Amino acid sequence: MNEVIEVSYTGDLLAHRRCPRAWAYEKHVGFVPYEQVQAMEGRLLHHAMEWLARRYAEDGVLANRSELADQLEHYYRVLRARGIVTAFSTREEVLKRILDNLYKTKSDSSKMQRPVETVIRGAKHTEYQLKSVREVIPESFAGKKKILLTGIIDLVLQLPDSLTYQRLWSWDDREELLGHVESQEIQAKSGDEEIWDFKATKAASESQIDYVRQVATYAALYRERTGILPERCVLFFVNERDPEDRLLVVPVDDELVEKALEWTVGQVEQLRATTIQFAKGPVAVAGGSLLERDKPVGERITEELKKQCTACGKRFDCDEYKAFLKGSPGRLDRETNPLRVDRS
Ligand code: SF4
To answer: How far does the centroid of ligand 1 lie from the alpha carbon of residue 329, in Å?
Structure first.
């Protein structure tokens, strides 16, 4: 028997937090992952940042808006050819949104926004691969002895200039890794090492707490690999319209990143329990967000999960989604009746 559980932080752990039922069908039965439907914008954004950073590192050039637009048009076609689609927006909308969020739109649309320019100039690594093997107690992980945890840090940078951030994650409970966002000026100095993670969502994302724990865990894995604990982590919510709210600083220290790692291992234990439950009987795995598990059936679908449900290949027999749509009979029939014939 293979003794290792392989877990990707985004593809498994965050997907399992979003909906264990959808995750189990994707992972173990081969249903098309939600990321395939939803990922276009995120992939374009990551590609944009990587391409801009590489261009700067190779030629010392900060690409302008129209050069990036050409590159994104090209990459959009590559993604389409690979079967990645935009589920909820047109190509023009997606590309414009990304470009507007990276470049100044009013005074001089050819120039990058200040934080974007700073990180492009300071990028040490893009798409930095993390891999970590941890021993675990087999009794808690249904016989498995090790976890292979993988993740990708979007950007590791050493600031070329000072930078002022306006929003700080303030830890209220370091044991439970809970906290809140505060408006506060944080001065980062030239030479500070930071890790950044890009999120193609708005700053008020309901998954914010999971993203904070994710970057804190990445900081632990980065320290494990390099011996360096980053000065701070930064979440970049690229679809946030208000530039002041787009960046969130997550402060870390040695003790806190250890806690984050422990929390992550606890999540892998839950994920393993879902796998075992699914193997015994797939119908036993309930749908809905893990963050809402204390609520009754029909109330565990969050605003963000709602979008995933409309594209989910397992919505037709999902008790959670059906209960959620109970008050809208038309939608219930339209979205969950596999035999429905649309004559419009
Ligand atoms: S329909 Fe929604 S709640 Fe049900 S399995 Fe799919 S994503 Fe999860």
So the answer is: 18
**What pLDDT digit, counting tens, does each position of 148-177 carry?**
999 999 999 999 888 899 999 999 999 999
Lookup: tokens for 326: 């109970």
Question: How many angstroms is it from 90 CA to the middle of ligand 1?
Answer: 24
Q: Residue 247 is encoded by which pair of tokens?
A: 């960046």
pLDDT digits (tens, 9 = 90+) for 202-261: 888 888 999 999 999 999 999 999 999 999 999 998 778 787 888 999 999 999 999 999
The protein residue with its alpha carbon nearest to ligand 1, atom 1, reads: 315
Q: What is the DSSP letter of 138?
A: G
Residues within a 6 A CB radius of ligand 1:
19, 21-22, 287-288, 301, 308-309, 312, 314-315, 318, 320-321
Contacts 24+ apart (CB under 8 A), 48-56: 48/72, 48/98, 48/102, 49/119, 49/120, 49/126, 49/154, 49/155, 49/198, 50/126, 50/127, 52/102, 52/112, 52/116, 52/120, 53/119, 53/120, 53/123, 53/126, 53/155, 54/126, 56/120, 56/121, 56/123
Residue to substitute in 16, 18, 21 for testing ligand 1 pocket (most ligand atoms within 8 angstroms of CB):
21
Quote the tokens at residue 139.
């009794």
Going from the Cα of 122 to the center of ligand 1, the distance in angstroms, rounded, reads 40
Q: Helix crossing, 254-280 with 208-226: angle to 10°?
A: 110
Phi, psi of 8 (to 5 degrees): -95, 135
CA distances from 154 to 157, 217, 339 (A): 10, 14, 43
pTM for this entry: 0.89
